[in-house]
Design a protein that fits this description.
heterodimer, A: about 300 residues, mainly alpha, MetI-like fold, 2 domains, two-stranded antiparallel ribbon, 2 strands, about 0% strand, flat, B: about 375 residues, alpha+beta, Rossmann fold, 8 helices
């Protein structure tokens, strides 16, 4: 009896640093944000508000800037998550089949992961931005093939969205390639031998053996991909500068930031409401993903 | 379908920089597996038996030599076109598919004129499942099956296309002792029912001896002896084969032949006419000892183990390579355990002499 209590105390003591840290930096702010989101017109200087209610949500959901940010984020998620996952899978399959220079290519594909976001942004500027002296590399190519040049950074919405999507896909791919390459390599080669003896055509080996066997990893990448894309912000800043509302390229996280610190900022209540909406969306999608995953993977170890 | 292996050799490039010469896994393998027989490739770990199986299946290409299925040269034909069924050591059942889907898998790959209707596939799968007695497990996943059941599913999957040759790689090594006994009888039964030429790999001599029509004893990539299990056991070509076959192991002594007499230690134990004089290895099967008060061969008695029908007489002897002698005698022979020594006569057909250098059989 005494020793159990002592053990529990000991366990709590060990947990204390983590509990304190998580409590102060995660749990408390989360609760705080939730509270703020229901306080009308909260003022962080005077710590006062006008009252409690759903006003902040109603404001945010009717704010055209938020709706633009929501639309941008949803498009970004819908395009980049499947694209980056499929592309990474193709690259990993390629990497897995070559033997020569495999390490070199693996390193090349991993480079964007260790490159600074803003540095990458600069590279994209060189590729896409129109200046007084040049139209950018891509426009140079478009013109070389007889097309009309497009302003990708300050031009039409679709062009900007395309650049943002390409940028995001390129940034998130290295990690996915890394994970998928190692999970492909971990499939026991005896399954491929068995399939070979049975005369299984390559596409069938891929869809009936390889894909099911690495599907846990793919689900993991899709879930983390969704979460990451919903949290996109710095990528848009790197490409279009900090005034994202004017550029029509804001994201939900960008909107939250603007509401707090931007030129039109100083509205922690609106920022909190927007953050909670984002939280609700991400939670819903993650739960749906988990449910699908559990149905699909019940028997795969 | 008979399987002919002609001068089969497989070399692997060395990965060890200090020894850049190729590793020879199989060397000059010449053998014919007769149609409809069950043949065991037998040998210690690393003797090249699995490589030989991979060569027959086509998963590996031979460096030199040819393989014929019947009269067809299949040396350059890829595994999927050889018409083989292969059972892997760890079964290689697809974990995400049910037993039924696993068995159907090879059939669904068929193309062109071999293509089957769904109904025909289901019927074929059910028939083969009945043959290996797993028809009530069809909707389970491999993870929900015992080792023995997984083994049966693997055999069913290999058999469903009605292969010309069935290959099994260490089929029993992942099973516990009781299941191993049962499953080897199963393999024999299935082979007899289907009459498919079957080749299997094992390092367990008892397994090979008990169910095979013929065995191939290998060591270091070289075939040492082939033939019916009993004849190989009764007439080993060299010391390795004599030692490898038989449980309990054969007793090996260092002896000498002097003027047609075999001498072990100081005793003349047997007449061996026509054998050259000089040092020899003497192999005596445990059942080759006959207790006799005036026997030519005597040893210090250690203990007696009574195993029901037989008695195991264990003697100490510095002359034996293992330091011990194990003799198995019928329980009708009463051994006087109060005496410190015991004497035997030797059954000449159970005594083998081998050259002390080449280890080849002399007598």
């Amino acid at each position: 009896m005494g020793s159990t209590a002592k053990n529990n105390l000991k366990a709590l003591l060990y947990l204390l640093p983590a509990v304190l840290f998580l409590g102060v930096f995660m749990v408390y702010p989360l609760i705080d944000v939730f509270v703020y989101s229901f306080e009308e017109g909260y003022n962080s200087a005077s710590q006062t508000s006008f009252g409690i209610g759903g006003f902040n949500y109603s404001y945010v959901l009717h704010d055209p800037y938020f709706l633009q940010a929501l639309k941008n984020t949803l498009i970004l998620v819908a395009i980049t998550v499947p694209t980056s996952t499929i592309l990474s899978l193709l690259i990993s399959l390629g990497l897995n089949t070559i033997t020569k220079l495999k390490e070199l290519f693996q390193t090349i594909y991993f480079l964007p992961y260790v490159t600074n976001t803003l540095a990458v942004g600069l590279v994209f500027m060189i590729l896409f931005k129109k200046t007084a002296y040049t139209d950018g590399m891509i426009n140079f190519l478009i013109k070389a093939f007889g097309g009309n040049s497009v302003d990708f950074i300050e031009g039409p919405y679709w062009a900007k969205m395309m650049v943002l999507c390409i940028y995001t896909v390129w940034i998130v791919m290295p990690f996915k390639v890394l994970v998928l390459t190692s999970s492909l390599a971990s499939v026991n080669p005896v399954y491929y031998s068995a399939a070979r003896v049975d005369g299984t055509p390559p596409h069938r080996i891929f869809f009936r053996i390889t894909l099911p066997m690495i599907s846990p990893m793919i689900f993991y990448l899709v879930i983390t991909g969704f979460i990451g894309a919903f949290k996109a912000y710095s990528d848009a800043v790197a490409l279009f500068g900090t005034d994202l509302n004017v550029a029509e390229m804001n994201t939900i996280v960008g909107y939250v930031y603007d509401m707090l610190y931007g030129d039109s900022g100083g509205y922690p209540s609106y920022a909190s409401a927007a953050a909670i909406i984002l939280f609700a969306i991400v939670l819903t999608i993650t739960v749906i993903n988990m449910l699908v995953r559990n149905r699909r993977l019940r028997y795969v170890e | 379908m008979k399987v002919v292996l002609e001068n089969l050799t497989k070399k692997f490039p060395s990965r060890d920089k200090k020894h850049p010469e190729d590793v020879i896994a199989v060397k000059d393998f010449d053998y014919t597996v007769k149609d409809g027989t069950l043949v065991g490739l037998l040998g210690p770990s690393g003797c090249g038996k699995s490589t030989t199986l991979n060569l027959i299946s086509g998963l590996e290409k031979p460096t030199v030599g040819k393989i014929y299925f019947g009269d067809d040269d299949v040396t350059k034909i890829p595994p999927e076109n050889r018409g083989i069924g292969l059972v892997f050591q760890n079964y290689a059942l697809y974990p995400h598919l049910t037993v039924r889907q696993n068995i159907l898998f090879p059939l669904q790959n068929l193309k062109g004129k071999d293509k089957m209707t769904k109904q025909a596939m289901e019927t074929a799968a059910l028939n083969v499942a009945k043959l290996v007695q797993i028809e009530n497990l069809m909707e389970r996943r491999p993870a929900e099956l015992s080792g023995g059941q997984q083994q049966r599913v693997a055999i069913a999957r290999a058999l469903v296309k009605m292969p010309k040759v069935l290959l099994l790689d260490e089929p029993l090594s992942n099973l516990d002792a009781r299941l191993r006994l049962q499953t080897r009888e199963e393999i024999r039964r299935i082979q007899k029912e289907t009459k498919i030429t079957t080749i299997f790999v094992t390092h367990d001599q008892e397994e090979a001896m008990s169910i095979c029509d013929e065995i191939v004893v290998m060591k270091d990539g070289v075939v040492h002896q082939t033939g019916a299990p009993q004849s190989v056991y009764d007439d080993p070509k060299n010391l390795f084969v004599a030692k490898f076959l038989g449980m309990p192991q054969i007793n090996v002594f260092e002896g000498e032949v002097k003027a047609g007499k075999l001498v072990i230690g100081k005793e003349e134990v047997l007449d061996v006419k026509g054998v050259r004089d000089g040092k020899v290895y003497v192999g005596i099967r445990p059942e080759g000892f006959k207790p006799a008060d005036d026997g030519a061969f005597s040893a210090e008695l250690e203990r007696v183990e009574i195993l029901g029908r037989d008695i195991s007489v264990i003697c100490k002897s510095d002359l034996s390579q293992s330091g011990m002698i194990r003799a198995i005698v019928s329980s009708e022979n009463l051994i006087d355990t109060t005496k410190s020594t015991v004497s035997f006569n030797l059954n000449p057909s159970k005594v083998f002499l081998f050259d002390d250098k080449s280890e080849e059989r002399l007598f």
